[in-house]
């Protein structure tokens, strides 16, 4: 069994209105040292696979198939073997 | 300047309907080896601080003040020094 941790964020060229709203709110709350805020999605996915390479391939395929919008989002992931 | 990466997920005891919906959809798409899916939030926060400890304290305070619901969510973070 493998655990994939997928981090999805907007591509640098894409406006992140949610991040801007959060940054403004943090400023109002007194967190004046915040320079920028980006918000994205985070997934923890457990999957069965024979090898780590097989798990990585599955993780990339399912991420591109369902978890991201390839036009506006990019992703990275960590992958580790875990007990069932 | 420091870059904090904050990973927010539901506490284990909290139902994750979004994760269940994604898992079902992945099954329909043929990803039958997926054992579980959890969805959370991911933040990248750049902030000015004199020391790494000061940056960590700020990051924890602003996360608990605005980025998570302490009743249902938990978080972890990575923190690194970056050029401005």
From TrEMBL, chains A, B:
Chief location of this protein within or outside the cell: cytoplasm
GO cellular component, one term: cytoplasm
Catalytic reactions on record: N(2)-formyl-N(1)-(5-phospho-beta-D-ribosyl)glycinamide + L-glutamine + ATP + H2O = 2-formamido-N(1)-(5-O-phospho-beta-D-ribosyl)acetamidine + L-glutamate + ADP + phosphate + H(+)
Subcellular location: Cytoplasm
Pathway given in the UniProt record: Purine metabolism; IMP biosynthesis via de novo pathway; 5-amino-1-(5-phospho-D-ribosyl)imidazole from N(2)-formyl-N(1)-(5-phospho-D-ribosyl)glycinamide: step 1/2
Record-level GO BP terms: 'de novo' IMP biosynthetic process
GO molecular function, one term: phosphoribosylformylglycinamidine synthase activity
SUPFAM superfamilies the UniProt entry points to: PurS-like (SSF82697)
Keywords: ATP-binding, Cytoplasm, Ligase, Nucleotide-binding, Purine biosynthesis
Enzyme class, broadest EC rank: ligase
EC number annotated for this UniProt entry: 6.3.5.3
Protein purpose: Part of the phosphoribosylformylglycinamidine synthase complex involved in the purines biosynthetic pathway. Catalyzes the ATP-dependent conversion of formylglycinamide ribonucleotide (FGAR) and glutamine to yield formylglycinamidine ribonucleotide (FGAM) and glutamate. The FGAM synthase complex is composed of three subunits. PurQ produces an ammonia molecule by converting glutamine to glutamate. PurL transfers the ammonia molecule to FGAR to form FGAM in an ATP-dependent manner.
Quaternary state and interactors: Part of the FGAM synthase complex composed of 1 PurL, 1 PurQ and 2 PurS subunits.
Family: Belongs to the PurS family.
PANTHER family per record: PHOSPHORIBOSYLFORMYLGLYCINAMIDINE SYNTHASE SUBUNIT PURS
Name the UniProt record assigns to this protein: Phosphoribosylformylglycinamidine synthase subunit PurS
Organism: Fructilactobacillus cliffordii
């Amino acid at each position: 069994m493998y655990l994939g941790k997928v981090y999805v964020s907007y591509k640098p060229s894409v406006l992140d209105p949610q991040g801007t709203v959060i940054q403004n709110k943090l400023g109002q709350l007194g967190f004046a040292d915040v320079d920028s805020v980006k918000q994205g999605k985070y997934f923890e996915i457990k999957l069965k696979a024979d090898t780590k390479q097989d798990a990585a391939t599955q993780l990339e395929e399912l991420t591109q198939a369902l978890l991201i919008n390839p036009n506006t989002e990019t992703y990275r992931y960590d992958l580790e073997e875990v007990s069932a």
